[in-house]
Design goal:
The chain is α/β, with parallel strands linked by helices and 432 residues long. The protein folds into 2 domains: 2-54 and 357-410, Urease, subunit C, domain 1; 64-347, TIM Barrel. Helices cover 39% and strands 23% of the residues. It is built from 14 helices and 17 strands. The strands form 2 sheets. Strands 5, 6, 7, 8, 9, 10, 11, 12 and 13 form a 9-stranded parallel sheet that branches. An 8-stranded mixed sheet has the order 3-2-1-4-14-15-16-17. Helix 3 (131-139) links the parallel strand 6 and strand 7 (145-152). Helix 11 (310-325) crosses helix 12 (333-347) and helix 12 (333-347) crosses helix 13 (380-387). The longest helix is centred in the middle third of the chain and has 18 residues, at 158-175. It is globular, with a radius of gyration of 21 Å. The chain starts with a strand and ends with a helix. The relative contact order is 0.17. Keywords: Hydrolase. InterPro entries: Amidohydro-rel, Metal-dep_hydrolase_composite, Metal_Hydrolase, MTA/SAH_deaminase. Residues 50-402 form the Amidohydrolase-related domain. This is N-ethylammeline chlorohydrolase.
């Protein structure tokens, strides 16, 4: 397959932007990038478009999809109340059918919006065991790459938490091989919803299976307060004392992490999934990404299940970090695109395969029609972040094959199945 690109934003180490080039993909792998246009039996014509690497959503919750538009009466006044009054009610109402259809619907939306890989954390304690089979079945209807897990919580009991850990290990050891690109990992909801024994068990299993653990870390102040109450110190040093960072850890949020805590995370090579839109929506605060960057931490970006448009998530990052500094030039807009591509790929340990357009990587691309204005190499990444949306996606390409286009829809997805996503959501609303 040959892709002809008018403007190619590579996101390679030099953050190179090239004009009027072609990319050659063979067996799903990029084997050449050269000047000029070429043709082949399979040619994608993006000569009048901007081509970027496939977007990578490094932290999401697909089970959030059915709640959009739901007639909920809860009016939480804190992050903890939102968990108790909304999310914990939702996840306990979930059925296997909900798990499958929310995964199908979310994966389809991501592909339509230019996302070619994601990392999900599912929570539905009443669907154990077998929950991840349902999630994987839904995702597998689309061509997207994914990492999935069950979100472990001991908010009811340690026994329930261990069932969640068992589910992750069962999927990794017994089910994962049935799918080409749907791998398993481990997830702890938070420190305050788990115990030291659960943390120890999760670390042991993750190291045994050589998989990362994703955790919501200091998203809300409740995490900090409960840690001080239970362990006499903030979450990061408490987890460090437990040996948590002996595992490969992806920390989502880190909104309330202090400079010393960030230093501990950096010393342990913990990677950060930044979720700016979610942090705005939950009114929890703004993560200190400036200190993270000074410490050379790896940062990616996720939607936390809130916004199917990763371009809006990028713009949210730009907005909050400018506003925090009260400086319209206080944040490099191109940084958001970096986080959404190669940064998120590094967070997920996939940077050798995806996240940039380079020889040797997989042929994952997004083609964008940005309208009539000229696209200049020096400003192209800024143009994408400031102006693009999922509506501008003309193709999502995975492994050199068109996974989505507006006229053809999503490869492999049955439209009748997508209609069932909404039906399942309405039934969930009735149960809630």
């Amino acid at each position: 397959m040959i892709l002809n690109a008018g403007t190619l934003i590579t996101m390679n180490d030099e953050r190179e932007v090239r004009e009027e080039v072609h990319v050659v993909v063979e067996d799903g792998e990029i084997i050449d990038i050269a000047d000029g246009y070429e043709s082949a039996e399979e040619t994608i014509d993006a000569r009048d478009e901007v081509v970027i690497p496939g977007l990578v959503n490094c932290h999401t919750h697909m089970y959030a999809l059915p709640i959009r538009g739901a007639p909920l009466t809860a009016s939480p006044e804190s992050f903890y109340e939102a968990l108790v009054d909304i999310w914990w009610e939702v996840d306990e109402a979930f059925t296997m059918r909900d798990a499958r259809f929310s995964a199908l619907g979310s994966a389809a939306e991501m592909v339509e919006g230019g996302v070619t890989a994601f990392c999900d954390n599912y929570s539905g304690p009443n669907t154990l065991p077998g929950a991840l089979d349902a999630v994987a079945d839904g995702v597998s209807q689309t061509p997207i790459r994914s990492m999935i897990s069950f979100e472990t919580t001991a908010r009811h009991s340690e026994a329930e938490a261990l069932e969640g850990i068992d589910e992750n290990q069962r999927y990794i050891q017994e089910v994962e091989d049935e799918y080409d690109d749907i791998t398993g990992h481990y997830c702890l909801h938070t420190l305050f919803t788990n115990t030291e024994d659960v943390v120890d068990e999760c670390v042991e299993r993750a190291i045994q299976d050589d998989r990362p653990i994703q955790i919501h870390l200091e998203e809300g102040l409740v995490d900090v307060h409960e840690s001080i109450k239970e362990y006499g110190e903030r979450p990061v040093p408490a987890l460090d004392s437990m040996g948590f960072f002996e595992a490969d850890v992806i920390a989502a949020h880190c909104v309330h992490s202090t400079e010393r805590e960030l230093e501990i995370l950096a010393e342990n090579d913990v990677k950060v999934a930044h979720n700016p839109y979610s942090n705005i929506n939950n009114a929890v605060g703004i993560a200190d990404v400036e200190t993270m960057e000074e410490l050379d931490m790896t940062i990616g970006i996720g939607d936390d299940g809130w916004d199917p448009d990763m371009f809006e998530t990028m713009r949210s990052a730009v907005g909050i970090h400018k506003l925090k500094k009260n400086d319209p030039s206080g944040f490099d807009m191109a940084k958001a695109l970096e986080w959404a591509t190669i940064g998120s790929a590094e967070v997920l340990g996939m940077e050798d395969r995806i996240g940039s357009i380079e020889v040797g990587k997989r042929g994952d691309f997004v083609t964008l029609d940005l309208g009539p204005n000229p696209v200049l190499p020096e400003s192209a990444p800024y143009y994408v972040v400031s102006a693009a949306s999922r509506a501008d996606v003309t193709r999502t390409v995975i492994d050199g094959k068109i996974a989505y286009s507006p006229d053809q829809g999503i490869s492999g997805v049955d439209e009748a199945e997508l209609e069932s996503v909404g039906e399942a959501s309405a039934e969930l609303w009735d149960r809630l």
